[in-house]
Amino acid sequence: MFKHIRPLSIPIARTHTARTVVVTRRFNAAHRNAQSQQSAYVEEQSVNPALLVLKFGRRVAKFTLFGLLAIGVPIVGTYIGTHLWVEHFCFVPETDNEARAWEWHFDSRDWTGDSAARGTDPALPSYWDKGFALRKYTKTEDGNLDNIKFNDPPLQTMDEYFQYAIAHIDDKHVVLSRPYTLPGLLFLHGTVLEGLGDLRKAKEVYQRAWEALPTHDFGGARIAEKLGNVSSRLGDSNDTLGWWARAIQLAQHKVPGDLDAVPEVPQQAPSSPFLQRILADTLVSLSLHYARNGELYQAAYVEEASLKLIRSIHGFDSISAGSTFDVLHKLYLLQRTSLLSVHLAEVEYILHRSPARSIQHLVAATDASERVARALVDHSTDSSGKSSGQLPDNVQSSPSFSAWNLMGVLHENNEGPKSKAAFECYEKAVVWGGTPSETPNGIIVAAEHTLQREWNTYWGNYQRTKQALEISDIQK
Question: Model confidence over 178-233: pLDDT tens digits?
């Protein structure tokens, strides 16, 4: 009866075995699949190593490109934007009617080749057009001959830009769209070379600027004056007088003559304010040239005639009224009369003329110079009404200190070493030519624009008379 009953354990065992087989097969299949993938990856890497390098290089190139774009685009944009800003907002014609009426736009440095045009000449190379326009605003093109820096990197860089632009114009035979572009560039290059101390080359560049002028007008008078100044510093006396004669002739709207001409002080001043300033500067240089070369009588004649000429200009010394540019023009001329008065007093002192006449000229010089100084100090006062506490640079270089020193010498010669008037004059010379030092005792030292050898003379005279007066007071 029970022999047909099948044991329960057999199906259970068989089922368990079947499930185990299925799981084992699945595991083996997955293991074989992983092994095949791994072997395929190893085979791929071992068979194609260039693929890995290619992928890596592609990633490097991608990130490098993104980096260059992120850095380069702002740099290029800033460069172009700054250039456009300089071209369109800095190289602009003078729009102030008062400035144009007093012709101060002729005194500004001509970067455009046309005082009525905006931006540099379109025919100039882009290297000049963009690069030099930015260099314009470095500490630069200072043509001040009293502060020469023979190894000034900004000036040397500007010299390279000028050389490149001018050489490009010459080599490529560039047709410039503005007639005064080349004379303007040459004139500016000459001022840079003066600043670098290369006077011979500066003179050559100025001569080429003179030859490049389409007409010898205002710009010709300025270049002729510069050529006379450089020739004087080089010791070329004949060229010096010839170029100054041309500057004076052009200031009178006359045709310039040969270089063997002798400069003459005109009887009447030109009506042009710019030419008045050029003429005044030329006459100051001329008087100094004669004095330095021992031609004292000729120097005295030029100084007396020049003072008479400048003082004859209408409204010359009325600086209390007028526009800013009107007053600035009058201060300019007033300062030149101060220089001429000091030169005349020195010449008459050497010629042993009446000391009273020399003192009269020196009083006029100090009065004119100090009027200029007061006007400039008032102009430097800020909008709040507070003074800046410092004299402007052009006041520091005033002729007042040399005038006061010479006045002290004249008083000391007449009254002896214990002259109180001489001491007061020497004291004023020290005040004008010196500045308090930063040391705790605040001792006065030479100001920035006072030559050290001149300062030693002023300080020595002041100390000598001070000690003489102190000894005299003790003895009393």
Answer: 888 888 889 989 999 998 999 999 999 999 999 998 887 778 999 999 999 999 99
- Specify whether the CB–CB gap between 240 and 231 falls below 8 A: yes
- DSSP structure class, residue 434: E
- How would you class 341 by CB atoms within 10 Å of its CB: exposed for 0-12, middle for 13-18, buried for 19 or more? buried
Cβ within 8 Å of residue 448, ≥6 positions away: 393, 396, 435
Rg of the Cα atoms in the chain: 41
416-441 residue pLDDT tens = 888 999 999 999 999 888 888 766 66
Amino acid symbol at 134: L
Q: What is the pLDDT of residue 343?
A: 94
What DSSP string describes 50-99?
A: HHHHHHHHHHHHHHHHHHHHHHHHHHHHHHHHHHHHIIIIIS-----HHH
- Full-prediction pTM beyond 0.85? no
Determine if residue 444 is left, alpha or beta; phi over 0 gives left, psi from -120 to 50 gives alpha, anything else beta: beta
DSSP three-state, residue 462: helix
